[in-house]
């Protein structure tokens, strides 16, 4: 089970790493043109902040265990990412846009949090 837990953690980390980098380095217009139409409802500075939080969450899922330091941050990172994705789900619902991806990410990140806090602590 722990191998699958690490596979899920790696997948979530890669998704948020890519998403965070794109929000930090791309212009709002480039994100909009790539299909992220919701960016028109988010202030550009907030969008960069969201990208930085996604990057921090992605790194927080992996680095503490790799470095064997502050491993208690892993479930905090996954919990924070789950909350962010619940907010993203609400945004997409409000805009009547597809919301399956953020909802699935929220559920997976939430499951990682629960498992890391209970049965499989880091």
Strand and helix order: HHHHH
Helix content: over 70%
How large a portion of the residues is in β-strands, by DSSP E? under 5%
- Radius of gyration (CA) equals 15 Å
Intertermini distance: 13 Å
Mean pLDDT: 95
Count of the domains: 1
DSSP, total strands: 0
Shape: globular
The secondary-structure class comes to: mainly alpha
User: How many separate helices?
Assistant: 5
Low-confidence stretches: none
What does this structure look like?
The chain is mostly helical and 122 residues long. α1 crosses α5 and α4 runs antiparallel to α5. It starts with a helix and ends in a 5-residue tail after the last helix.
Question: Which features does this protein show?
Answer:
122 residues; mainly alpha; 5 helices
Write a concise synopsis of the structure shown.
With 122 residues, this protein is an all-alpha fold. Helices cover 77% and strands 0% of the residues.
Sequence-ordered SSE layout with sheet pairings:
Layout: H1 2-25, H2 28-33, H3 44-67, H4 73-94, H5 100-117
Helix pairs in contact: 1-3, 1-5, 3-4, 4-5
